[in-house]
Amino acid sequence: MKKAIITAALIGLNTFTANAQDVYNEIRNKAKAAIETTKDNDITRHINQFKVDALDYLMIKMQEQMPDSSTTFLDKQALSLNSFINLYIKHVLLDTTAQKQEQVERIKLFMDASYSNPLFSDTDTELTQSYYANPKAITRFMLDTDWRKALLAVEEKMRQEQ
Hints:
By secondary structure, this protein is mostly helical. Helices cover 67% and strands 0% of the residues. It has helices at residues 2-12, 23-37, 42-65, 71-93, 100-115, 125-128, 147-161. The radius of gyration is 15 Å and the shape is globular.
């Protein structure tokens, strides 16, 4: 049952190709739609709520601190966030063969990659750590994350472990 629920979440989180200026909006709109249409799947709703919150945070902070940045930068961050979440789902939530200790180590790997790669160095830790510090959260990641660097860090660490 849990695997079916998470598989449904993956369908809503799949990677796609789109015009550069549309990537951020497409990922956010799909996540928002999944929240609104998924009434009885807490995992899918939570994952997509995190994506919406992280993307909204990214947009607001970019407008404040990087008003001259391109939409390409925002789109690359959004696409990396989407890939990061998909990798997390695949290697943590869907991997039923991993031992408990191995799953804990993988969760720590993703959490550390998020924490260790801030984009804005925001001092509002109550906001930026709202998911990270919540032990009940499925996506225990920082909102203030450079998603491109975090994704690369996770991929590199996983490559080294193989």
